[in-house]
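Entry for the shared binder. Reason: the reviewer on the internal report wants the predicted structure included alongside the sequence.
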Amino acid sequence: MQDLDIPYQRIDLGEVLMTKPIDQEKVENFRKVLLKYGLELIDDKKAVLISQIKGVIIEMIHYSEDEPVVNFSTFLSDKLSYNYTYLSNLFSEIQGSTIEQFIILHKIERVKELIIYNELNLTEIAWKLHYSSVAHLSNQFKKITGLTPSYFKAMANKKREVLENL
């Protein structure tokens, strides 16, 4: 930012707070520098909001050690300071799927990860990811992956044994 002579107040993960608007030439130069590092500039307000929604969901599911969130809609609304209906409609319009579907896909990916780590049983995983029961988790897992959690675990263990023998 300093090399490009772009005035900024602060930089957080994925977000820059500018002190004043910059001209289009500086925007394009900034975009080119970001691309060199495999990053992209998102300057469309709707795209930024979609990115923020995804970021909050991913952080909540994959990286949070807090108590499970009971109501995702309230959590998202509070975190992003937007009405949930607006967020939901915008997400569906831009992404072609619902926020709920995005959450489910990420929860299943997290379940897979936790099964492979083999540190928690299915009851603990269900609680951690706020499923109402192990049966609910298992049904959703099978619906998304085509496999039961126990079959997935058996497959993962077979793969891990091969790696251990190397």
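Summary line for the report: The first helix runs from residue 24 to 36.
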